[in-house]
Write a structure and sequence with these properties.
Radius of gyration: 39 Å
Number of helices: 4
Number of strands: 20
Length: about 325
């Protein structure tokens, strides 16, 4: 068999070609690895940035309430979102001050009992309520006395100087026992007479037997038991804890014998009788005691009843509990 001659130059060319191909393959593999690592790194950075994006963050707002209470001691809120939290003062207490950690700014609206904050960090807010030393009677007594237009006027009763509202006033609303009332007057002993803003229903009137099932007093007592008994620590009455306005009090409320805050679109009972068989209504007309008319209950609050919040308007009535 003839031996093959070794061509060194040719074999060297083959080796160089092989090594060149191997170098290109390694470069491609390294490039793919670098590209893969870059993609993974970029994805991780984007994911982390998305996770930590302020718009996606949930921050924690912790609450410390002194002399009050809140349904939530801790609130989760979106970053920089305007957050409102309801906080109620204890009976007899009013807002004093508010502070938050991390230099976060917050405010408290007493009339609505809302703490409002736009926080950017996990934060603890402390709100303090203080004992209210201002009574409702004192607040009303400090109003300017009117002389010719609607407002607060002065008269006297058996107990001393009395203040009463006259005309179509819009600052004598009171929220009490989850019912909207109107202040009629501050009596001479500084108790506060209220009448409901709406009728509670209709009843006939009996003046012969106040204990009969169909008497108006029995109707009022039922209303008291179901709606006011839990709040009687605020209510002052010597003989009856609930009653009606007198005909004279209706007349006192009228400016120029016409304009009044009382509802005159309906016909309702007063406690002033004309005879054994008839009673005056708000429009000074007497009705038979068997007539079925609207009923507006009247109560007297104790003179030291505290004023919690409000300015007496319909949208922000005086709040006493």
């Amino acid at each position: 068999m003839a031996k093959r001659s070794f061509d060194a130059e040719k074999e060297l060319q083959k080796l160089q070609k092989y090594l060149g191909s191997l170098k290109v393959g390694i470069s491609i593999i390294i490039g793919i690895c670098i590209l893969t690592i870059g993609i993974i790194f970029t994805y991780s950075v984007v994911k982390l940035a998305s996770k930590n994006s302020p718009e996606e963050q949930k921050i924690k707002i912790s609450l410390v309430v002194n002399n009050g209470y809140t349904a939530k001691a801790e609130v989760q809120a979106s970053y920089n979102a305007l957050t409102s939290i309801t906080i109620e003062p204890n009976n007899g207490y009013v807002y004093d001050n508010l502070s938050c950690t991390n230099n976060q700014k917050a405010s408290f609206e007493s009339g609505q009992n809302h703490l409002t904050i736009r926080a950017t960090k996990n934060t603890e807010c402390t709100i303090n309520f203080k004992l209210n030393e201002l009574s409702l009677a004192t607040k009303i007594s400090n109003e300017q006395i009117a002389t010719e237009n609607k407002g607060l006027y002065v008269t006297t009763d058996d107990l001393g100087e009395s203040l009463y509202y006259k005309g179509n006033v819009d600052n004598n609303y009171v929220s009490f026992a989850n019912i909207l009332w109107r202040v009629v007057r501050i009596n001479g002993d500084q108790t506060i007479r209220l009448i409901t803003n709406e009728p509670i229903g209709q009843s006939i009137y009996s003046i012969t037997d106040s204990n009969s099932a169909d008497s108006i007093q029995n109707y009022l007592n039922d209303f008291y038991t179901h709606n006011l008994q839990d709040y009687e620590r605020y209510i002052d009455n010597v003989n009856l804890k609930i009653g009606l306005l007198t005909k004279d009090e209706v007349e006192l409320s009228k400016l120029n014998n016409q304009e009044t805050y009382l509802d005159m679109t309906k016909t309702w009972w007063t406690m002033s009788s004309k005879s054994e068989n008839s009673v005056y209504t708000n429009n000074s007309i007497d009705y038979k005691i068997g007539s079925n008319l609207d009923v507006y209950p009247v109560i007297n609050l104790k003179k030291d009843t505290p004023l919690i919040a409000g300015d007496g308007t319909l949208n922000n009535p005086y709040k006493i509990n």
